[in-house]
Amino acid sequence: MAELAPYAVSESNSRGRQHPEQGPIARSEYQRDRDRVVHSTAFRRLEYKTQVFVNHEGDLFRTRLTHSIEVAQIARTLARAMSLNEDLTEAIALSHDLGHTPFGHAGQDALNACMREHGGFEHNLQSLRTVDLLEERYGAFDGLNLTYETREGILKHCARKKARDLGELGRRFIEGTQPSLEAQLCNLADEIGYNNHDVDDGLRSGLIEMEQLDEVGIWARHVAIVRNAYPQIAGRRLIHETVRRMINSLAVDLIEETSRNIRESGITALEEVRKAAALAAFSVGMHAEHKELKHFLRVNLYQHFQVLRMTNKARRIITDLFGAFMEDPRLLPPQYVKMAIADKPRAIADYVAGMTDRYAIREHRRLFAVGEI
Length: 373
Ligand code: MG
Known about the structure:
By secondary structure, this protein is mainly α. The protein folds into two domains: 29-308, Orthogonal Bundle (Hypothetical protein af1432); 309-368, no CATH class. 63% of the residues lie in helices and 0% in strands. The protein has helices at 29-38, 41-45, 64-81, 86-95, 104-114, 123-134, 148-154, 160-163, 171-175, 181-205, 210-213, 217-229, 235-265, 270-275, 284-302, 305-327, 334-342, 344-354, 357-368. The longest helix has 31 residues, at 235-265. The chain starts with 28 loop residues before the first helix and ends in a 5-residue tail after the last helix.
């Protein structure tokens, strides 16, 4: 690995793993984290979980898995350009959505509503719960026993009340300090990823039209460059030439602005990163454009009536499943029945959150469709 910046996370400044283990032989500790994530059950499930479009609506739309891979690609570029820990960045990016429910945000909101009286449900916290507790792969401990720094990166936000239960990992939400630069950048790589692929998927689905995007600054600016370079270009090539330029502009802007922030704050060590204000940021102009695109997608894609119909169905499936298991936990698979003895609602939330879209649909049919067994 190329030499790391003095404020990058490294094995020498790591806070280590919860359960002490012998160091890896041919890999770094963060490669090992990445590998553990890639081999996990939760990671494979991402292939069949909705990003915006339900998995079976079309084979070309992003899923949670392809989204996570795109985020990892962007995040690694950022990390390498800034001499940060690329392996850690990849580990965080690939695991950032492991706790997502089926059916995207609709599923998360429905499960959160079901859990209102029982401590709530938050996908970000669930990602941490997945790697800390739910994965069953080792004889000596529950979960994947990832390094502190990967877990810190996974936990993007957390309510103060919950943070108190998380010990050292939760402290920054109480004290208002920051995670590593690697974690901060993954967070923004996630936004670059979904904003841009949702433009692509939105156009592909026909739910948004290219003409609508002309009112969005970042799109208008880049589509003009493409049309100027290729006057005859149209259709998919025009979309892809534009989207790849948008991703590139956002990434380059983020690298420049973040590097300037680091320089101007005189940061020389990881602990200073944690104590400083957030360092990873877009420039003021790019931030405004980025927000404008986000707003456009919310109004025109995420709230499109066809997406809302799916959202509505998802809410019903999640709510029905949760209700049926609450009423009779004996309907749960055996390992969850055992967990339900300690905390019934949480065990049910773990089970439901782990489902893929199609598993949830099938499970709903098995429990509710008259004439099915
Ligand atoms: Mg994400």
